[in-house]
Every structure is written in structure tokens, then in C-alpha cells.
Design brief:
Blueprint (H helix, E strand, L loop, with lengths): L8 H12 L18 H7 L2 H4 L17 H12 L4 E5 L2 H11 L7 E5 L4 H10 L2 E5 L15 H10 L5 E5 L6 E2 L2 H10 L3 E5 L16 H4 L3 E4 L1 H5 L6 E5 L6 H11 L6 H37 L5 E3 L11 E2 L3 E5 L7 H12 L5 E2 L3 E5 L6 H17 L22 H6 L2 E5 L13 E2 L15 H12 L4 E2 L2 E3 L2 E7 L2
Parallel strand pairs: 2-3, 2-4, 4-6, 6-7
Antiparallel strand pairs: 1-8, 5-10, 7-8, 9-11, 11-13, 12-13, 14-18, 15-16, 17-18
The protein binds pyridoxal-5'-phosphate (PLP).
The site of pyridoxal-5'-phosphate (PLP) has 15 residues, from helix 5.
């Protein structure tokens, strides 16, 4: 770190403006520093927060052309996260992923990426008109969880598509595993391809030696970090990182401005600045205390009958090159119950909100907000769960396989082509015009342009039977309808 991270220029300027300077507001937002906010809302959450919900003005700089406190705050973030530039975002990492793909690809450009990407990447491909070249990620045989990609598979794709414009990687996957980013980035750069990292689940990576290194250090030209996921900022706030090189800064600036609201929330922006300060000053000592607690919790969970935590024992120096231990992925399949059901059970029985359930696993995300008490509550709940349920290894829980359906049209073509709603059960061999997924994790079963198969319909039926609400399908009476291309 080269800079003085004691400062939080944007946060300080907002506090001065909203809480100290007492302006008479004749600008928007029309609630005028909270005066127009309904009383019951103010009574419930306090009045001060609304004094900080202000619009862009000279003292507070402008997000689309930062020359003041936002510029300073972004420079500090770039310094902490080891990149040449940082762009603050208020529409989540979704907009970061869109910005990365639209900064590198246009109509007809190929992009190489794993199939277990988040829906934001598929949506960005629609917006850009790009052509996806999918790589199957490695799947852990026991848990069915999708991991990183094998370097050889990416290299093969680069060799087969030397005209591709970019390689896009998850760094890490939802479950905390990273691919061999450096090897892949080097090979992609030798072939003049940009390297993009979805580091949504790894904003804390550069901050402790136990974590994998940040993508910007390993060769990414751009990376998106969801500060709101594990960095301590407010939901929706995120940071796009850029390194000088293959993608011009001016292209990124223009792309960011294409999507960004002209009324960005200063609460979100200031939360990025103050969270960056906290990470810079405190994360090292706090992780020093927290990580041994996480390790102990994982050991204790592994000692419970039938429970297995996916961890660094799976590392293979390739598709599972690195691992983030703050992702506690717990395989519960020995109890003959799906992770979807266990996810619901934990909320209902223990008031524990897990991050997600999958066929065989549930995921608990740990961050700087956790304590010995919260980790202990997680362990005690699992202890109780295992004491109340019988092991049932004979009852096999169905895996929902990650499929790569046949792509008949590009996602953009299919998204904009004439479409119609049809009962899911009658859609076999038709071409999907929409993405269908469980959220989280938001990895689609099918995306626009892909052929629907019986296997996809079966997966849908299983996932909804397990209590999931699927995005992209429409329930009418007892039937499920989906959007397909008109024949
Ligand atoms: C891998 C991945 N990328 C991108 C996103 C989008 O992030 P956000 O919700 O901040 O828009 C998510 C969200 O869960 C994600 O899991």
C-alpha cells in the first residue's frame, strides 16, 4: 500500500455535508434531507441516515467524471486492491461484470468462459452481442459442486478460437475455489486476449496471506469485487478494477458511464470508501483472530457424523488451485436430505440464514462481520441437526448436473427474436428465449439460444419440488410456462 489509508475523503465529505453543514436543500432528492420521508420510516430507522441520502453536487463530486473526493476515494481503493484504477459502482457486481464484457467485446466477438458463471455474465453477453465459448468446469464428484476450470481446457479453447477477444474467469467460484489464474492469464495475453475476473466473492483476497491472491495481481486486465458481499460495504455497492494494458482506460470510463445512473446513492458510495479504510487498517489483525476460529469450526463440523466440509484437501494445483476458507461448504447428503431442504430447515429451526443450498451442500459465508459467537452458533446448529436426524446414506440425493446445452443461436439473437410462452412440459427441442435459474447462485439451467432437453425439464421439476423459486419461468395455475423462440 502506497497511500495513507487513514483517510476516507468521500465518506468524510458526505458526513460534513449531510450532518454538519445544514444546507437548505432546493435540489433533489425531494425528501429534502429526510423532511419528506414518512414518519414511520424515520421512527423505525432514525433520521440521520436520510440526511446522507443526497445528490451529486460540487462538494461531493460526480461519479461519471470524478475530479474531487470520489476521484481520491477511488485512487485509495485502487491502491488497496492493487490495480491501476478503481471505479465505484452502485448496481452491484452485476454492473461490474457488464462493464468488463462490454469493455472488451462487441457484436460477434468471442469470449471464453466457464459455464458456471453468474447470470450477470450471460446478460452482458446478450448486451454485447458476444459469442460465448463455454468451458466445462471441474465438478467435484462427491458433492456435485462446480469448481474452477482446468488450465488445459482453457488453453485448448484459446488454441481453437485464436480470434477470441477475452477470457473470463471466476476468481473464486461461489464455493471459494480458484483456477490457476496466472497460468491462464499468461497464455491468454500471449494470444492478445483480455483477461477478466469475476472476483465478486473475493473482495478480501488481497488482504491476508491465507487467501488466494487477487486477480489484478495475477494478470487480470479487469476484475470486479463485490465489496458488499465480503468487504463490509452496503448492498449493491461494488468496485471495478482496471489495469493499464490491453483495455484502454478511456474505453472502460465510457462503458461505465453508459450504464451508471446519474443519481448514484451517496450512502452506497460512502460505504465503499469507509469499508476500504476499515479493510486497509483493520483486516489484517481481524483476520488473524477470525481465521483460526474458522479453521476450528471446520474441524469440529468435520467431526460430526456424516458431515463433510469441502476444503483445501481438494486442492489439485489446477481447477482447484486456490481456496478461500471463509466459504464453509457443508455436504449434508449422508442424511438423505438435499441441501435445499437443509437450507430451509436451518432458517426455520435455528434462525440461521445460510447463503445457499445445492443438491448435496449448503454454504455458510464467513466475513469480518463474524465472531466466535456466530461461528459457534453455526456449529451448535449442525450438532443439533446431526443428533436429531438419522444417517441415511442409502437414500441418494439427486445431483443437478451442470449442463452445457446445445447453442443454436447466440444469446443476443435469441433474446431479441420473436418468442412465445409455452408449457415447460411441451418445450422439448425448442430454443429458449430466456434464462432459467435458481437464485442464488444464479447459474442458469438454460440461457437464450439454447435447446431445451428432457434433462433440463427434469432438473426444473426436481428443483421446484425441493422448494426453490426459479427465476425466468412463469407459473400460471398449476402449469409452468417458459419463453421460447417462435418456430
Ligand atoms: C459469481 C457472481 N458474479 C456476479 C454477481 C453479481 O453481484 P451483485 O449481486 O453484486 O450484482 C454474483 C452475485 O451473487 C455472483 O455470485
Amino acid at each position: 500500500m502506497k497511500n495513507n489509508h487513514q483517510k476516507a475523503p468521500l465518506y468524510d465529505a458526505l458526513i460534513d455535508y449531510g450532518l454538519k453543514s445544514n444546507p437548505i436543500a432546493f435540489d433533489v432528492p425531494g425528501h429534502k434531507l429526510g423532511n419528506g420521508i414518512p414518519k414511520e420510516f424515520k421512527d423505525a430507522v432514525g433520521a440521520d441516515i436520510f440526511k446522507l441520502d443526497v445528490n451529486s453536487m460540487k462538494e461531493l463530486d460526480s461519479l461519471s467524471n470524478p475530479i474531487g473526493v470520489i476521484k481520491e476515494a477511488e485512487a485509495l481503493a485502487a491502491d488497496l486492491f492493487q490495480a491501476d484504477h478503481a471505479f465505484f459502482l452502485v448496481n452491484g457486481s452485476t454492473s461490474g461484470v457488464q462493464n468488463m464484457i462490454l469493455s472488451t467485446c462487441t457484436d460477434g466477438d468471442k469470449i471464453i468462459l466457464p459455464r458456471n458463471i453468474h447470470k450477470s455474465a450471460f446478460n452482458a453477453i446478450v448486451l454485447a452481442g458476444a459469442v460465448p465459448i463455454y468451458i466445462a468446469p471441474h465438478i467435484d464428484e462427491f458433492s456435485g459442486v462446480s469448481m474452477g476450470v482446468r488450465s488445459a481446457d482453457v488453453i485448448k479453447a484459446i488454441d481453437a478460437h485464436p480470434d477470441a477477444k477475452a477470457v473470463f474467469l471466476l476468481h473464486p467460484t461461489y464455493f471459494g475455489y480458484t483456477s490457476d489464474f496466472k497460468t491462464i492469464a499468461n497464455y491468454a495475453h500471449q494470444h492478445n486476449m483480455a483477461v477478466l475476473a469475476d472476483q465478486s466473492h473475493g473482495s478480501h483476497f488481497s488482504l491476508h496471506n491465507d487467501f488466494p491472491q487477487s486477480a489484478t495481481v495475477l494478470g487480470a486486465d479487469m476484475a470486479t469485487i463485490s465489496m458488499h458481499k465480503t468487504g463490509g460495504s452496503l448492498t449493491q455497492s461494488s468496485i471495478l478494477l482496471h489495469n493499464n494494458g490491453i483495455i484502454p482506460y478511456s474505453r472502460v470510463r465510457s462503458t461505465v458511464n453508459l450504464f451508471q445512473t446519474s443519481s448514484a446513492s451517496y450512502l452506497l458510495l460512502a460505504s465503499l470508501d469507509i469499508a476500504r479504510k476499515q479493510l486497509a487498517l483493520e483486516s489484517s489483525s481481524r483476520f488473524k483472530t477470525l481465521l483460526p476460529l474458522v479453521k476450528t469450526t471446520v474441524q469440529k463440523l468435520n467431526n460430526l457424523p456424516g458431515i463433510q466440509v469441502l476444503s483445501d484437501h481438494l486442492l489439485d494445483n489446477d481447477a482447484m488451485h486456490g481456496f478461500d476458507i471463509t466459504k464453509i461448504t457443508i455436504d449434508v447428503s449422508a442424511y438423505g436430505m438435499s441441501g435445499f431442504k437443509v437450507y430451509d430447515y436451518f432458517k426455520a429451526r435455528y434462525n440461521i440464514q445460510l447463503e445457499l443450498g445445492e443438491s448435496h451442500v449448503v454454504l455458510a459465508v464467513v466475513s469480518l462481520g463474524d465472531t466466535k459467537t456466530s461461528l459457534n452458533a453455526l456449529y451448535e446448529a449442525f450438532k443439533d441437526f446431526t443428533s436429531k436426524h438419522a444417517l441415511n446414506p442409502k437414500k441418494t440425493v439427486k445431483h443437478v448436473k451442470l449442463r452445457i446445452p446445445e447453442m443454436v443461436f447466440t444469446p443476443r439473437h435469441a433474446f431479441f427474436a420473436p418468442s412465445m410462452l409455452i408449457a415447460l412440459s411441451k418445450s422439448i427441442d425448442m430454443i429458449s428465449a430466456d434464462s432459467i435459474m435458481v437464485y442464488p447462485p444464479g447459474i442458469p439451467l438454460v440461457v437464450p439460444g439454447e435447446k431445451i432437453t428432457q434433462a433440463i425439464i427434469n432438473d426444473y421439476a426436481y428443483l421446484s419440488k425441493e422448494g426453490n423459486i426459479l427465476i425466468g419461468a412463469h407459473q400460471k395455475d398449476t402449469n409452468v410456462y417458459i419463453k421460447v423462440l417462435k418456430p
